[in-house]
What we know:
The structure holds 2 protein chains of 2 kinds. By secondary structure, chain A is an alpha/beta fold.
Amino acid sequence: MSSDVVIRVDGIGKRYVAPHKFGRDNLRSRLIGHLKEFIPFFRQSEEDYFWALKDVSFEVKRGDIVGILGRNGSGKSTLLKILSGVTLPTTGRAWLKGRVGSLLEVGTGFHPEMTGRENVFFAGAFLGLSQREVRAKFDEIVDFSGIEDFIDLPVKRYSSGMYVRLAYSVASMLRSDILILDEVMAVGDSAFREKSQKNITRAASDGRTILFVSHNIPAVKQLCQSGFLLNRGSITRTGNIAEVASQYLREVQKIQDNIDVVCSYRDLVDAPRFDELRKVILKSVELLSEQLEPVNAIKSGDSLRIRIKIANTSVQEPYFTVFFLNDVGERVMTLYSTHNFYKVPTGEVIAECKIPSVQLVPGLYRLMIDFGSFALGQFHSVDCVPNAIAFNIDHPGNLGPPRLVANQGYLLQPASWETVSAS
Amino acid sequence: MSVTPASSEEHVIEAGHRGISLGVSALWAQRELGWIFIRRQISLRYRQMALGIFWAVLEPLAFLLLMSAVFGMLLRVDTGNYPYPIFAFSGLMPWLLFNKATMAAAQSLVDNMALISKVYFSRLLLPVAGVVRETFDSAVVFVILVILAWMFGYTPGWKLLLAPILLIYVAINALAVGLWLACVMVPFRDVRPLLTLVLQAGMYATPVLYPSTLVPEQLLPYYQLNPMYWSVELFRWLLLDKSIELSGSFWISLILVVTMLFSGLVVFDSGEKKVVDVQ
């Protein structure tokens, strides 16, 4: 099995010189600080440096598509830069087997003064394609980009969409054994994105190994089987992409409470708020079934009551908003109390939102509850709990196959099928 | 779907220092890229200019006109039997090549930072391409120089065949200096104005606009240590048939250039690795 490993990274670390912080210090320390930035001799303490990556180790097998997740500044790009040879690590070593092609930025090597055609050849050369290869694939590249008519125009005359599409198309012809891609999915319109996603999948099915960084979680989940999460330069989670992605989303949405919020009742007084300074108005949330039984799991199509207890004394024209977020953090549904012109009375009260039929696809959902004042057509949030409660939606038992299919959309819409005319 | 056999290439990326290397073999391995890069540099330079490639010639000619007016007509510098314009031009051409090529090589990493920080290739390509681009321009200027000399009565002779070697020698001079400075220039942008000043001074320390006969006899051996002294004098020798005597200083300057070039390659190769981090 180990012969299948094509990338082995061992304790990679990368240290940068920390930018000097100019405070209210005297001239001498300012001068030293300035010199530290330029001359290694003056950098003696560890605090003159910061580690963009620290002790990162992992292995990738041939044919794997590995997603690297992490917030901005977590070290993803530094890692890819090291693996593609742009910069050297401070510690550790990496071993890669096969031809390595990397795309750290769409449009590397493009020059605005040159025509699309010239740029294709030039960028291709920088990505490691031979001119013969580019010539052989030229039509394919232009076809993929969909800008045949403008290929002999200087790219400075292109729209930014045309520019990145052409740039990406060149890169998509990369056929190295190992592909290193940094945030390349964010290019073009949705049709083009789908095309490039397919291209990546095809590249992987040819036995190529792909390492890729993206903030587009649905795309990552669709493309990768495994991945790892970087946080402040260290790997904090590795394994199945779904787990890694959900951990990442918790980080992004600043969900510090790691307590399992899948429950039917939750006290919100101490729950983390979006903004610490806000008043605590939302007191608790409870999920009930049609029959007023507490639930933390319902079937798709079932009824659901959300009971929110508040203590409001000062907010005028109050409103509630309940956001439904799916397991990747996408908003799938929003309920506004203003849709019903509902106004909660002041004092300590319990408001109930009743959904006659929750027609969402099975999965884990989290609720974000927002309370504030709606005046003059404007929402002013006063108290907002981003991760109020979570619950599961299960598959209704009465439907035929298929049951659990990935990427089926957001709704489980009841529909009937019948023959209206038979010959 | 065809499964391409995985190449047996292996890459090891490791922290710490590697041995001393000139980086020349890596450059050779990427010669195709180098060739494209140079072609692009040359074609890009004059795109968007109404007079295009003519600027390669117009610029030195304008400079020559200026210098001829100041040194030839106002100060009346004694150049022996050589008409001042042709005397100055034959010195100016190699000097301008040295000046611009040094600048191009020294600036090459700074100018191409966007590329360096995004894709890996032999970085030696950048200074080399800069120097080649300037040499190309100079070759065009050289042709004009030959025609001009002809008009002044200096019939081109067989010695002109040595001109390419001399041009390359000047380019190597520039590359040697440029390689030393290229990596330093990235964190220390101070180098650029300094280099401009030094090159400016260098022109007056080289017999470009005046003949070396004006230099005091006892200083001459030191004055001749300047490799560009020899380049300029050799150009005059092959164009104007000006007599030349290769003294001991010539050989010392030659050794100096070769040492600078090889040490420059080593310095560049070790500095190039860190350049991305200190930009």
